Amino acid sequence: QGTANRISIQTSSPQTTISKHIYGHFAEHLGRCIYGGFYVGESNTKVPHVKGIRKDVIEALKQLNIPNLRWPGGCFADTYHWKDGVGAKDKRPKIVNVWWGGVTEDNSFGTHDFLDMCELLGTEPYLAANVGSGTVQELTEWLQYVNFGGVSPMSAWRKENGRENPWKVSYWGVGNEAWGCGGNMKPEHYANIYRQYATFMTDWSNSNKLFRIASGANGADYNWTEVLMRDIPHHMLGGLALHHYSVIEWNSKGPATGFSEEQYFKTMKQAWRMEELVQRHSTIMDKYDPAKRVALVVDEWGGWYDVEPGTNPGFLYQQNTMRDAMIAGMTLNIFNNHADRVRMANLAQTINVLQAVILTDEEKMILTPTYHVMEMYKVHQDAKLLPLALQTKDYAFGNDKLPAVSASASVDAQGRTHISLVNIDAKNAQEVSVDLFGGTTYKTVSGRVLTAKTLTDHNTFDKPENIKPVAFNAAKLKGGALNVTVPPFSVVVLELK
Ligand code: AHR
């Protein structure tokens, strides 16, 4: 921290790729994420859909270029038996969603629905398999069902159910939160279970290598990472997960809108913790895997508040304000800057649950401030990271303080440089001097900004465009120097050519 905001960006010889998979999403059978969010049923006459999948949602998500979508949970995944969700819909068993509100799950959205939807979205599926209450056989049969093109009982069943060719799914989660809802296991026990499951997770297609992801630590449980990295042979481990939510206190989370500056500050503090978590888990991973073969996969992140008044507490439905835009912008900057190890991540969750990018109400749909940040940041997907050094002023509140500015930068395949800047200061604009060194010459700068009148502003079904990105004119380029005035609580993405 310092008395001025200065960023030095090395513009020559970029090396690390910012994996597009950092910009992944997560859809659980929870509240109205799947039912009412993605899926309205094939007989719905009110909401335009393709085989029950909302058309408006597909169009909106396509604009984000979402690289992967995790499904069916979350905690739900370790209660999910995939065979319940294939075959004739009227014959599928109705089960209780024990984790999320105790509601009836009619299994009308299953494997075919999800994987076909991923094709519509142009995104890669990431299937979270049931380890907590499933069996090795159940998982190997799921793999065979979705990935095998030859003759086998499961591929024959898939064909009977209307799908000739396998979908070839690469990303597989081996359980979820094994330390908690996934089985309350100790890390040594889970490491053994993982080894057993992973052994039988055959790459049926032989053309797309399976990327297996181990259930990772709960926030700062560094011992979990230590044990898994030590005890699981790395050739069977594509990624190790990590979950971190920006929650003030689990028993007093505070409202999603109408929060105080104190609550805002506390949320920002939790969001900033991601930097420390990524650094410390990475350090442990470096010890066992200096070549960085195993990815750190932050497959659940985002803000978590009290549910909206009058809604089912088990549905985790919350509004989304500029505070969420701040979480998204700074978290994605953290992931970009650690792209050598963080190679996949999933915002929780896509629609109507936690830090959603989309909210729906029957036939209505709105895009949240978080959606707009994801859309503005898509320029970083698969671009080359430009390393930067950042000195920032403080955002002070009471006796505490946080870095006010965060940033990341990349150069894309067309040679365009993008810089994303976030100012979390609730009151003050930040003047930022950006020093571009390394010999690249830039002629123009343009950009967009996402901000609002107040921190608690949000989009509603009546005012869906209250918050949206607009052109940004407060960046001045002179020689190798760029000066930017970043308004309070705003996200700016610049393009230099
Ligand atoms: O995203 C909501 C829940 O949070 C997930 O089901 C679980 O994995 C986590 O605890």
What does this structure look like?
It catalyses: Hydrolysis of terminal non-reducing alpha-L-arabinofuranoside residues in alpha-L-arabinosides. Keywords: Carbohydrate metabolism, Glycosidase, Hydrolase, Signal. GO terms for molecular function: alpha-L-arabinofuranosidase activity. This is non-reducing end alpha-L-arabinofuranosidase. It comes from Dawidia cretensis. The protein is an alpha/beta fold and 497 residues long. It has 2 domains: 116 residues, Golgi alpha-mannosidase II (Immunoglobulin-like); 363 residues, Glycosidases (TIM Barrel). Helices cover 23% and strands 27% of the residues. The protein contains 9 helices and 27 strands. Strand 12, helix 8 and strand 13 form a beta-alpha-beta unit. Helix 6 packs parallel to helix 7. It is globular, with a radius of gyration of 22 Å. The two termini are 30 Å apart. The model has no long low-confidence stretch (mean pLDDT 96).
CATH class of the largest domain: Alpha Beta
| Tally of strands | 27
Strand portion: 25-35%
The helix content is: 10-25%
Unreliable stretches: none
Shape: globular
The figure for the number of domains is: 2
CATH fold topology of the largest domain:
TIM Barrel
- Mean of all residue-level pLDDT scores: 96
Rg result:
22 Å
In angstroms, what separates the terminal alpha carbons? 30 Å
Largest sheet: 8 strands, parallel, barrel
Q: CATH superfamily name of the largest domain?
A: Glycosidases
Which class of secondary structure composition applies to the elements? alpha/beta
Strand order of the largest sheet: 2-5-8-9-10-11-12-13
- The helix count comes to 9
Keywords: Carbohydrate metabolism, Glycosidase, Hydrolase, Signal
Enzyme class: hydrolase
Organism: Dawidia cretensis
EC number: 3.2.1.55
